Amino acid sequence: MTAPVSPAETLRTALTSLLDGLPARQAGQAVERLIASYRGATPTHTPILRDRADVAAYAAYRMPATFEAVHAALEAFADAVPDWAPAGHTDVGGGTGAATWAVTATWDGERPVTVLDWAEPALSLGRDIATANPALRDARWQRAKIGSALTLDPTDLVTVSYVLNELTAPDRTALVDAAAAAAQALVIVEPGTPDGYARVIEARDRLIAAGFQVAAPCPHSAACPIVPGEDWCHFSARVSRSSLHRQVKGGSLAYEDEKFSYVAAARFPVDPAPARVVRKPQIRKGQVLLDLCETEPGLRRTTVSKRHGALYKEARDANWGDAWPPPSDEPPRT
Ligand SMILES: C[S@@+](CC[C@H](N)C(=O)[O-])C[C@H]1O[C@@H](n2cnc3c(N)ncnc32)[C@H](O)[C@@H]1O
């Protein structure tokens, strides 16, 4: 019997075939133009993704990374709400739909899915790629502008991935408020930079004020213990590099690490991790140093040594972003 193909593999195949008709040089130039636009002054007043070539380049170059980042955030969220699965999903600023793929990689089954974006070429390409994913067969891809007039239909889960970054401060507020009014659960992902973290914390504060509880990455819904300007909370997701990546960035590494910041929060009771590993664990001879965010006293470094027995083995296996201590029994996900 052959193993079922995961959404991640299906997405990779769909993205590779996207570039089939596009000469490598043209795809490389489109990516470089996009990187330059994203480096420029954002927010923008018109969509950056203007045509099919832009969007194909964006999708092939960035979608594997945004998919992996959102997938990691959703898995952490799912661990904190083991008896819950979304009965509906809206992806705002969804572009080519990376977060919709990540939701199907996190929870089995089908649900009504809506993707909203102001860039028609992105929606159109997202719709085409999604034909490869049976759980996205009936997804609706709709034009919508994020702004003070935005309202969202009620749904279980709203995702906002790599979007706050492109909005003005009033539009960020309008989006978080509209999502909080419509959703039972909200997952926001941003680049893992000091600015990305600041936007996540701004959204986190608004969600808590609106009655949400933080499910991940934080072990609590109290104020973040990080002193602004001194550090920023972020994580890392491993992404296989495509031939387009290698062409644009050079080098021969088979993977790269996507840094991201996120918050996942819900209106219903959540069971956050008691602590989370917030830096890459440092493995020394006979001991592992773990930087943890805990409920009390906040940030703390702990040393787990051979004396700790089974916990030492778990610490050696711990990854940046994991819950600590690891949950002993993984309950089946519905
Ligand atoms: C960096 S892309 C992220 C796409 C997707 N969420 C992902 O994670 O791959 C940002 C998306 O936000 C959309 N966007 C930016 N400003 C917008 C606005 N004011 N209204 C609607 N969509 C907007 C863009 O068109 C683009 O598709």
TrEMBL record:
Signal peptide: none annotated. InterPro entries: Mt_RNA_Methyltransferase (IPR052571), Ribosomal_Rsm22-like (IPR015324), SAM-dependent_MTases_sf (IPR029063). The keyword Metal-binding applies. Pfam families: Rsm22. SUPFAM superfamilies: S-adenosyl-L-methionine-dependent methyltransferases (SSF53335). The keyword Cytoplasm does not apply. It comes from the Bacteria. Keywords: Iron, Iron-sulfur, Metal-binding, Transit peptide. This is Small ribosomal subunit Rsm22 family protein. It comes from Streptomyces cellulosae.
